[in-house]
Design a protein that fits this description.
By secondary structure, this protein is α+β, with helices and mostly antiparallel strands. The chain has a domain of about 120 residues. About 20% of the residues lie in helices and about 20% in strands. The protein has 8 helices and 11 strands. The two termini are about 35 Å apart.
Length: about 425
């Protein structure tokens, strides 16, 4: 494993450019400024040097770097076992300087959290002092933590002088077929996605970053996910809560990432970034569980055990959408895989990085659970195109409801000494 540089002295993370008129101390006030980077990885966080990503075992020492100057971690990074997502709005009366300071403080703290460090004293020398870090992740290690920060469309307005910096592709998602969105789980001006192989590490990251934002940003909605519901390269395909494999044909090669995920147009501050769509999809679990397996397979277009397309024998067989049996398509045209397949959508692909979730019981005393759908793409219109088709005729709609939604622009990762979104203010 590549050796890491020694820890930097306090406030060393602020040695690069910072908002004009803000002192280095003021910029990072409230965080321990020293940051230790993670182990060296390949571009975008795909490989830990000397360590194969094919392993599915949990490794508390696994860490990813923050200051790459390339893509933010948590996109191309092999999906971890747990996640926590939280959306925020900037507080009333805040200014562009407040936003800059928050992004800078968050960035410095994310770097420390991803290195398995605290972001302040857990047990201050003065017993009457408030702890800088809540402490629940002490001794748990980095556990492969990544935190990915996104900027919502509503952030780009006159309040912060960013209207002219909004990418043309960053606009509120239109109303889509099958939408049953609740205001309490929709929208957001800032978004944080934390993923880790230990649920307490992911929770701790969001908890402490939200705590840091008090007075500057207010929490809007959150979902805690488990059991990654999309596969990364070289990972065994996981299952969603309907019992079917999810992520079999996910984006996996560098060529696909360049073509479908990373932004290479629009404002300079977004190049190397991506767009993130977050959807909270509630599943009618108990109704689904009463359906016959042969019908469930027709809904997905795959077998339940193996995950093979109905036209094939093993999971990774290429679906044959033209195959027929007895004069009828082997894979129903209204099945989920037929409607979502890139062959049937002009070649369009999106990177899926979802997680299962559960919220206990609903108002009818039935299981309240579903999918925290997270996807990345270089054009949100790709998601709109796919979901317009799926929301109209997908047989899966009988068993699901889209109850939450948000869209974020995810800037590239900063270089050491910088912060996420810094070029927005230059």
């Amino acid at each position: 494993m590549t050796a890491e540089p020694p820890a930097e002295p306090a406030d060393a993370a602020a040695t690069g450019d910072r908002p004009r008129g803000i002192s280095r101390r003021g910029l990072f006030l409230g965080t321990a400024g020293g940051v230790v980077g993670g182990a060296v990885l390949g571009g975008g966080g795909g490989l830990l040097a000397g360590r194969a990503i094919a392993q599915d075992d949990s490794d508390s020492a696994l860490q990813y770097p923050f200051y790459t100057g390339l893509h933010q971690a948590g996109i191309e990074t092999p999906p971890q076992r747990y996640s926590m997502f939280m959306a925020f709005d900037m507080a009333a009366g805040t200014t562009a300087t407040d936003l800059q300071v928050l992004l800078a403080r968050w960035s410095a703290s994310i770097a420390q959290l991803m290195a398995g460090q605290t972001i302040g004293q857990v047990e201050p020398a003065r017993t009457d002092a408030v702890a800088g870090d809540t402490g629940e992740a002490l001794d748990l290690g980095p556990s492969g933590l990544t935190v990915t920060l996104g900027l919502g469309p509503d952030l780009f307005d006159a309040r912060f002088g960013l209207a002219a910096k909004r990418p043309p592709k960053l606009r509120a998602l239109p109303t889509l077929p099958s939408d049953q969105l609740a205001a309490a789980t929709t929208g957001g001006e800032l978004g944080l996605q934390a993923c880790a192989d230990d649920p307490q590490v992911a929770y701790h990251a969001i908890r402490d970053l939200a705590r840091m934002a008090r007075g500057t940003a207010t929490t809007r909605w959150t979902v805690m996910g488990f059991g990654r519901a999309s596969a990364g390269p070289h990972q065994k395909t996981p299952r969603n809560l309907m019992g079917f494999k999810d992520g079999t044909r996910n984006i996996s090669t560098p060529e696909e990432y360049r073509k479908f995920v990373w932004v290479d147009d629009g404002p300079a501050w977004m190049r190397g970034g991506s767009y993130q769509v977050v959807r909270k999809i509630q599943m009618n679990i108990e109704i689904w569980d009463a359906d016959a397996v042969h019908d469930q397979q027709a809904v997905f277009g795959r077998t339940k055990n193996e995950g093979a397309p109905l036209s094939g024998r093993v999971e990774h067989d290429t679906p044959d959408f033209g195959a027929e049996k007895g004069g009828s398509p082997v894979i129903p045209p209204t099945s989920h895989i037929a409607l979502a397949a890139h062959e049937n959508n002009g070649g369009v692909k999106i990177l899926r990085r979802g997680y299962n979730y559960t919220d206990g019981l609903d108002q009818f005393a039935q299981l309240d659970a579903g999918l925290l759908f997270i996807a990345y793409m270089n054009d949100p219109e790709h998601f709109v195109r796919l979901q317009t088709k799926l929301g109209s005729v997908d047989r899966l709609n009988e068993y699901i409801s889209h109850i939450g939604s948000a869209l974020f622009a995810v800037p590239p990762a900063p270089k050491r000494g910088g912060y996420i979104g810094e070029r927005l203010f230059s």
